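Structure ticket #2291
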Amino acid sequence: MSTWKPVPASPSTMKSSQAADLSTLSVETLQELNDNNDCLDEFLESLPIVSELNRQLEDLMTQNEELAKHNLSKQPQMLQLRQETASKLKAVTELRSLHEKLFLEYQTLASKYSPQNIKENLKLEALKSDEESEKIADNFLNGKLDVESFLSEYLEQRAISHKRKAKEERLGFQLRELEKAGF
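Resolution: structure written out below.
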């Protein structure tokens, strides 16, 4: 690909060159040029400046054609890059969607298994065990349970309740200590 840039002839150079050529012509020739457009065209085409401009125009057209061919040769590469970009954009979009889904899942699990939530759940479950042991006691007092069933069920529910209360208190103590330490 050429980097040649034509330098246009200045109007003053063109006028002085044409004037010099016109001054050497006879009056009859000048009259014929004035009257006959074909002769005038032929005369103008024979002028050195017009020949130079035509040569520069041909060079520019050749350069333009070479540049167009070069650009067209890049089209397959451009299409391939466009397809790769679209594919990568699709992959990024899918990864972003997956990230958002996993982040929501993480937030749900982080909330579910946060120490505060675990402590509250232990407290609620200890209360449920207490209520269940009260129902067992009521059933025994109403004669719906014999002594052996009452003792095994009641002691089991009370043990579960005490374990849950102990774990809840221990976790609460640890959380307070962490808060004091600045965590």
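Closing remark: The radius of gyration is 50 Å.
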